[in-house]
Amino acid sequence: MSKHHRLLSAAIKYTFPVFLGYITIGIAFGLFTVERGYPWYVALATGIIMFAGAGQFIAVGLFAAGASLAEAVLIEFVVNARHMAYGLSMIRRFRNTGVFRPYLIFALTDETFALLSSLPEISAAENSSKEFNSVLAERGRFMFLVSLLNQIYWNTGILVGALSGSLIPWNFAGVSFALTALFIVLMIEQIIRIKRPAPFIISALTAVAAVFLLPGVLSSRFSLLSAMIVSLGIVQFINTRRSGSMPC
Q1: What is the pLDDT at residue 126?
Q2: Pick the residue with more confidence: 60 or 227?
C-alpha cells in the first residue's frame, strides 16, 4: 500500500464516528432547507461555502423568517464565537502544515477540532533533519484528509436529504440535539485519550455558572461566549502557575 493510500485509510478510520453523525445530520439539514422553500443546490452550497453545522441551520431559519443580513451576521457571530477559541488553540498544530493551512482553518468544525486536537504533539527537540520535516509534512496531509473527509461526509448527507426532501416525510423533533450529542461522545473519547480532564471540567463549570449568573436575555445570547473567555483565562492561569510541568 502506498503512503497516500495508507494515510487515506487511516483518516477514514479516524473520522468514522464523525461520518455516522454528519451523514445523519446532513440529511436532516438538506430536508430542513428544502422544507423552508430553498432549492437543493442552495443547501449544498451552504455546506461547501459555509460549512458551519448548527450555524447553517440557524442561517436558513433566519432568512426563511425574513431576518435582515445584519441580524443574521450578529447572531452567527455569537453562535460561532467558540471557533476563535478553537483557532487560537490550534495555532501551533497548524504551524508547519504548508499549503494545507488555509483549508484546515476554514474546515475547523467542532468535531474536526475534537479529532485534530486529540492527535499527539510532535516535538522538534530532537533535530530538524529531513526525516523530521517529512514527519511534519505527513502530519499536515493527514490533518487535511481528516478535515476534507468530514466536509465530504457533511455535504453527502446534505445532498441526499435535499434531493429526497420532497419525497420523505420528516419529523424534526430532537434533531437540534444530535450535533451536541455527537460532540459529547467525541469529547469523552478525547478525555480518555489525553487523560487531562481539568480543562473540560473547568469549561463545564463556567458554562453552567454563566447560564445561572447572567440575566435572562444576556444568558441566552452570551453565556457560551462568556464561559469560553472565563474558562480559557482560568486554564491559562493554571498552566502559567505550573511552569515547567505538563498543562492541565
Answers
A1: 47
A2: 60
